[in-house]
Amino acid sequence: MNIVAEVLTGGIRGGTSILYGALGETVSERAGVVNLGTEGSMLAGALAGYAVAAETGQPWFGVLAGAVAGGLLALVHAYLVLSRGANQLATGLVVLFLGLGLTSLFGVGYVQAIAPTFSPVAIPGLSDIAFIGPVFFEQDPLVYLSYFFVPLLSWLLFRSRWGVLLRASGERSEVLVAHGHRVGPIQYAAVVGGGMLAGLGGVHLSTAYTKAWFENMAVGRGFVAVAVVMFASRRPIRVAGGAYLFGAALALSPALQARGVGINQFALDAAPYVVTLLVLIAFGRRQLRDVPEGLSKVFDAQPTR
Amino acid sequence: MRTRWLIPALAVSLALTAAACGGSSDSGDDAAEGAAATATGPGAGSKKVGFIFVGPKDDYGYNQAAYAGSQAVKKHYPDMEVLTAENVPEDDNATRVMEKMIAEGAKIIFATSYGHLDPGLKVAESHPDVVVVAQGNFIATAIPKNAGTYFGTVYEPVFLAGIAAGKATKSNKLGYVYAFPIPQTIANINAFQLGAASVNPAVQTYVVNTSSWCDPAKQAEAAKSLFAQGIDVITQHQDCTATITKAAEEAGKMVVGYHADASVLAPKGWVAGSEWAWADMYIDIVKTAREGKFTGSPYNGNFRVGYKDGKNPFVQSKFGTMVDAATKKLIEDQKAKISKDGSPFVGPVLAQDGSTMFKSGETPDYAIVEKLNVKFVKGVVGDLPKS
């Protein structure tokens, strides 16, 4: 396999967990709630997915459990932020600590567990397409599942009535109230749903990508997901592009090293973050204009209009 | 040996550590009894011994092995209380945890991670009656009367595992996934390649680093990249080892273990491996300290033990099914040779760039190996990360 195809394949494989997390964060932020606890939801999903797959022998039960675990942790965030009026950023970090601590504690017994896992499955026909086939269609089932979520969420957010309500809750919640809707349930659903998606990202990490559980195994991918959402303007299709870009940046280093190419690895390791900074510098002002009004209040940074 | 990535992790580990210490310290009032013992000197007559670990006690690797060693001490000395703390970061938190153990009456402290040395030395300085020994690392300055470092010669069994890998490979390409380019790791990679090349001159070792003691996702990607280049035997030097082992088994490749026997994860692909067996050394250190003989003992220094001069705590794991009797015999012979020579790095050893690393007839000891292994030997493909 040539290096371009290898890096792209690795980018999709490695970017999928980030993609799930970022899609979840997109839904949440569209409803006006920033959830820095995404990393915690991913860890919760990773552990619950792996543990349930190990206990039941059925990885798809693990997928369900992972989504539920990610959603439950996000529920803590939703309660504190929406019902108790806590600061979103601080609460998000607390939720992350909580997820990290709980998963480290309860995950101890599963470090050595052997669970049934997902392996790549080539899709007949599609995987034969030159170049695109091996890159997109020789992946594991959870990657394929993520392919459905991107257009689905795009449609839900921008073409469905549900999406209008959700976005209104993040932009001008007064309008919703004036129209006789209750804002709380919509925002709760968005935050918890977002946590469930992040949980799926964790399940991909533990039961498909690495086939192991280890404490703190997300190692910052949840934060990368939050960054992706910001520079992708909270649009699912762009979010997918951003997540895969990060995945490719992560896949570049081993692909070069395995070819014996001498290159400054520390610079390569920093590449994904440099990319984020560059994107934020280049499009920062436009990003600000795109921020839902509810979110602008969180950051206390009113966009220049 | 893992560096923590984010401060939150530290905070949580701290909380867990505190819980761990609290749980294991039910009786703090017999602390004074230790001093009443007849022998004097640091650690003499200690009734309690403390162990701190940088990671969880069941990581299928380094920390699990150290924890097993601490439990062996407990079994060997039923009259002693063994205090343990997991997930202790390599910073001032370690100092705090050790101080707490000392306050509870421990007079012997094992700081089991590379980065626990500096906090350990700080504690040793403020408690002259307490023995603090650090696992790995070197005390570069004058050695205090109550401190020391200890380790095995890790590259010896790695060299032997390399022989098995060199025999097993069909593509003549071996893969090595490692965390950081520290001398100990580079010595392992070099020993692995030299061992393989000793039975298979055409063999090459491809290296990929992950810049993390445990990032399973990076490991998964590294394994995939190496397999794509035709590598058919993979090994690693990291704290968590399950991902690479399982990736090899799934891809139908072979794997050489490190830190622990993970053959159950790769029943088909397991070739050989190396793992820690700390019990004897831990027990001997505790014995020496309790008898008040620590100061001036070999442990009151940078103690290293290999096949030549004692019992190396880093031992060979069991062989996989594909290793035949002839190869096992070859490995036994090489082990005997190392036991006689004192090192697998007997010259001539050429560096990657063709220059001489060890002259013909030169037998470098541990200290020299650790100092000179700052570059790869001939046959290793890939560069060291430059900063």
| DSSP strand count of chain B | 15
> Gyration radius of chain A, to the nearest Å?
19 Å
How many domains is the backbone of chain A divided into? 1
Shape of chain A: globular
What CATH architecture label of chain A applies?
Orthogonal Bundle
Q: What is the N-to-C succession of helices and strands of chain A? A: HHHHEHEHHHHHHHH
Query: Order of strands side by side in the largest beta sheet of chain B?
Result: 12-10-9-8-6-7-15
Structural commentary:
The complex is a heterodimer of chains A (305) and B (387). With 305 residues, chain A is mainly alpha-helical. Chain A has a single domain, classed as ABC transporter involved in vitamin B12 uptake, BtuC (Orthogonal Bundle), CATH 1.10.3470. Helices cover 75% and strands 1% of the residues of chain A. Chain A has a two-stranded antiparallel sheet. Chain B has 387 residues and is an alpha/beta fold. Chain B folds into 2 domains: 7-152 and 278-305, 3-Layer(aba) Sandwich (Rossmann fold), CATH 3.40.50; 155-276 and 314-381, 3-Layer(aba) Sandwich (Rossmann fold), CATH 3.40.50.2300. Chain B contains 12 helices and 15 strands. In chain B, the strands form 3 sheets. In chain B, strands 12-10-9-8-6-7-15 form a 7-stranded mixed β-sheet, with helices on both faces. A 6-stranded parallel β-sheet of chain B has the order 2-1-3-4-5-11, with helices on both faces. Chain B is globular. Residues 1-37 of chain B have low confidence and may be disordered. At the A-B interface, helix 1, helix 4, helix 11 and helix 12 of A face helix 1, strand 7, helix 8 and helix 9 of B.
